[in-house]
Design goal:
By secondary structure, the protein is an alpha+beta fold. The protein folds into three domains: 114 residues, Acyl-CoA dehydrogenase/oxidase, N-terminal domain (Butyryl-Coa Dehydrogenase, subunit A, domain 1, Orthogonal Bundle); 98 residues, Butyryl-CoA Dehydrogenase, subunit A, domain 2, CATH 2.40.110; 146 residues, Butyryl-CoA Dehydrogenase, subunit A, domain 3 (Up-down Bundle). The strands form three sheets. The protein has a four-stranded antiparallel sheet with strand order 2-3-7-6, covered by helices on one side. It has a three-stranded mixed sheet with strand order 1-4-5, covered by helices on one side.
Length: 388
């Protein structure tokens, strides 16, 4: 029996449901028409295509794995497949969708009051309102428990002070889900844009994630009503559970970036003539292509299995760490190897490889560095925690 395809060697897409395959083909076709022709230009300009937000809402991509409040209520695997197709275009676009659905909508959906859900979720699902997630700080990244942003009670109100850094969607968000230290532990707060004392500063000097808005959030005696707090969670469980949701999208999404790099290298190798024949006819080029195809296929198997576990309700944080650690590591290795096949052309914006490689450098460290995920798995394997 021949291989299923040069990209999907084992025919894994054939094991997806008909609905999942339809989602994949719909998202891929939409991005082919509305994003791919413009991505090099957007990347060069550092421009986020905000006009696509409403279109993502119409496609049902925003908070698609959540139920009710205008959300599509799809399976976890369907959400993963959609992330794969979005990131096959650009990691920045997938980051927008991940932050909107998994980091901003999910905590409201999981931990918010009914009034909070009604106020924000329908508009966010439709792409009419944008959210961001404020956890990382200038001096607090992998150790969120050391955050300095704090909220104190003042009568019935809360007064929020501090700042967050490297916040995707921050400069365009209508609401920020902000995690702050209180006398009662870490709590989540909904901070609408326009609240007095709340401001944002976009981070422009980036070599990665240029088709994405990245910002700093500033809170200077921001006064919030009592009902701005998310009532359903206390402690780091809140933000960490959101990160698990987003990391799930990442471990699928990077498959798309890796696939694009591999397909670009394969097409180039078949058309680039050196010494009288395509460079794909040379043994070392074939070795590179085979290694890329194998690692992409193995990473896809991991994503499929983790998707099954999530849909079955048996997914753990350790499973997420397996997927995030392996799949991002292999995706960035594929991007780097694919670039070598294109030689100098690989750094040109005429081809997408360097854009993906640069983006994956951010994906490698955000929402859990490789070191942290390694130690999470190390603790699970040995029973010994290497960090608190």
């Amino acid at each position: 029996m021949p291989l299923a395809s040069t990209t999907d060697l084992l025919g894994l897409d054939a094991t997806l449901s008909e609905d999942d395959r339809l989602i994949a083909s719909t998202v891929r076709a939409f991005l082919a028409d509305h994003a791919l022709p413009h991505l090099a230009e957007w990347n060069e300009a550092g421009q986020f295509p905000r006009h696509l937000v409403a279109e993502f809402g119409k496609l049902g991509l925003l908070g698609m794995h959540l139920t009710g409040y205008g959300c599509a209520g799809t399976s976890a695997v369907a959400y993963g497949v959609a992330c794969r197709e979005i990131e096959a275009a650009d990691s920045g676009l997938r980051s927008f969708v991940s932050v909107q659905g998994s980091l901003a909508m999910f905590p409201i959906w999981a931990y918010g009051s009914e009034e909070q859900k009604q106020e924000w979720l329908p508009g966010m699902a439709a792409g009419e309102k944008i959210g961001c997630f404020g956890l990382t700080e200038p001096d607090s990244g992998s150790d969120p428990g050391s955050m300095r942003t704090n909220a104190r009670k003042d009568g019935d109100d809360w007064v929020l002070n501090g700042g967050k850094m490297w916040i995707t969607n921050g400069g365009i968000a209508d609401v920020a889900v902000v995690w702050a230290s209180t006398e009662d532990g870490v709590r989540g707060f909904l901070v609408p844009r326009g609240t007095k004392g709340f401001s944002t500063t976009d981070i422009k000097a980036k070599h990665s994630m240029r088709v994405s808005v990245t910002s700093a959030l500033h809170f200077d005696d921001v006064r919030l009503p009592a009902d701005a707090m998310l009532p359903g969670v206390r402690g780091l469980k809140g933000p960490l559970s959101c990160l698990s949701e987003a990391r799930y999208g990442i471990l699928w999404g990077v498959l798309g970036a890796a696939r694009t790099c591999y397909e670009t290298a394969l097409d180039y190798a078949n058309s680039r003539i050196q010494f009288g024949k395509p460079i794909s006819a040379f043994q070392l080029t074939q070795q590179k292509l085979v290694n890329m195809a194998l690692e992409l296929q193995k990473a896809t198997l991991i994503a499929h299995r983790i998707g099954e576990l999530k849909d079955a309700g048996t997914l753990t944080t350790e499973h997420i760490s397996i997927g995030k650690l392996n799949n991002v590591r292999e995706a960035i290795a594929i991007a780097r190897e694919a670039r070598t096949i294109l030689g100098a052309n690989g750094i040109s914006s005429e081809y997408p490889i360097m854009r993906h490689a640069n983006n994956l450098e951010s994906v490698l460290t955000y929402e859990g560095t490789s070191e942290v995920h390694t130690l999470v798995l190390g603790a699970a394997i040995t029973g010994q925690k290497a960090f608190s």
